[in-house]
Amino acid sequence: MDIRFRYNIRQFAYIVSILGLLLFAYADNIRWLWSRWMENPNYSHGPLVPLISLFIVFQKRDIIKNLEIGSSNRGLYILLGAAIIHIISLRAQVNFLSSYSMILALAGIVLFIYGKSIFSALAFPIIYLVFMIPFWGGGIIKLGNVLKLLSSMLSFSILKLLGYPIFREGVILHLANGSLEVADPCSGIRSLISLLALGTILAYYSNGILFKKVFLVFLAIPLALLGNTLRVVFFGLIFETKGVLISEGFLHTLTGLGVFAFAFIGLIIFKKVVKI
């Protein structure tokens, strides 16, 4: 009993030391992540992601206790790859790549210390940490522009179908009372990123086949687009009937939350219908 206790103490000290070194190596990157979470509304969900991962690990605690603890040298290769990516990212000042290398380093540590069985059990909560990392800025801008254009096209079609005189010029809708622009806050990108993270959790706790789970995750994309389109149509109707242009304020924020709620309910309904 005493020997096992001393062994557990050594293991705990070993793990704490390695995690301490990991935090030290990525201290600047962690500060960068925190600043993005606080400053960029697209990633305000960021602090919740590691908490969700920890909760999943906590749920698996009984399963993990019964797994064989081993060690795999492949974890060292993963750590080496993570270190190389981190060094290159620091030199090139590409913070989001450095963040990915931090997750890769964590995976390498788990594999090296605990072996394949426990690594497999913890693979999902480790991979899920990807959702806390801001995507490549250029890619997000391009995706946001595509979503804005699609929303403006669909909104134009709906408002025209409803009988309102309307002309579309890119992402600008020209109505009788004036022009309505589908700007960046109305692109739907904020809802999309959060919904992809939420859809992944729903898929993880589902019992269906892999195809259905993947479909559930990516269903967030058309649902976010549809929800945002209805939001733009609502703004257009208010502008056309009341002459009020809603570009900010409480109602603007509330409808943004409505887009997220609409898409989330859609994911839940799909999950119930296909029984996964």
Structural notes for this entry:
By secondary structure, this protein is mostly helical. It folds into two domains: 2-133, no CATH class; 138-273, no CATH class. Helices cover 74% and strands 4% of the residues. It is built from twelve helices and three strands, in the order ααααααααβββαααα.
The biggest beta sheet reads: 3 strands, antiparallel
The gross shape turns out to be elongated
Number of continuous helical runs? 12
Which assembly state applies to the chains in this document? single chain
**CA distance, first residue to last residue:** 45 Å
How much β-strand is present in the residues? under 5%
Q: What count of structural domains?
A: 2
Give the low-confidence spans: 1-5
Total strands: the figure is 3
Compute the average pLDDT. Answer: 84
Helical percentage = over 70%
Order of strands across the main sheet: 1-2-3
How are helices and strands ordered from N to C? HHHHHHHHEEEHHHH
Structural class comes to mainly alpha
Keywords:
single chain, 276 residues, mainly alpha, 2 domains, 3-stranded antiparallel beta sheet, 12 helices, 3 strands, elongated, disordered N terminus
Quick rundown:
This protein is mainly α. The chain is built from 12 helices and 3 strands; from the N terminus they run ααααααααβββαααα. The N terminus is likely disordered.
List the helices and strands and how they pair.
Blueprint lengths: L1 H24 L1 H13 L8 H12 L1 H5 L8 H19 L2 H20 L1 H13 L8 H25 L4 E4 L2 E4 L2 E4 L7 H16 L5 H9 L1 H23 L7 H24 L3
Antiparallel strand pairs: 1-2, 2-3
